[in-house]
Amino acid sequence: xxxxxxxxxxxxxxxxxxxxxxxxxxxxxxxxxxxxxxxxxxxxxxxxxxxxxxxxxxxxxxxxxxxxxxxxxxxxxxxxxxxxxxxxxxxxxxxxxxxxxxxxxxxxxxxxxxxxxxxxxxxxxxxxxxxxxxxxxxxxxxxxxxx
Length: 147
Known about the structure:
- By secondary structure, the chain is mainly α.
- It has helices at residues 6-19, 26-33, 37-49, 74-80, 99-124, 128-146; strands spanning 53-56, 62-65.
- The longest helix has 26 residues, at 99-124.
- The N and C termini lie far apart (44 Å).
């Protein structure tokens, strides 16, 4: 099963967009992400619906942030992308009348729900600005080691 990398890829994209004053075209973003511009447009449209990005048509047009990074959390982007399941582990439902299956599924559901609540709380507490600041610190450290 493939991992859903949309959240990571969109966070990456948004931070790059914030670092450049020019609008980013779907083609440019697609090249950066090694994907198709149609995929970029479809994904960015989800973020646009929630007010995180905007687009300008025409020459010199493209995608731009609609809000400062400090006003966008990781949870915001996760939810804008459709809140895909956090876990790829599923429950067995072949034998719904089996009491063992019910007990197993109940325990797993409780554990998954608790873990997901913890993760969503953490995602809510991190802004894209914090990630951008982390990047700047990494860049400064790398520059210092090269000097």
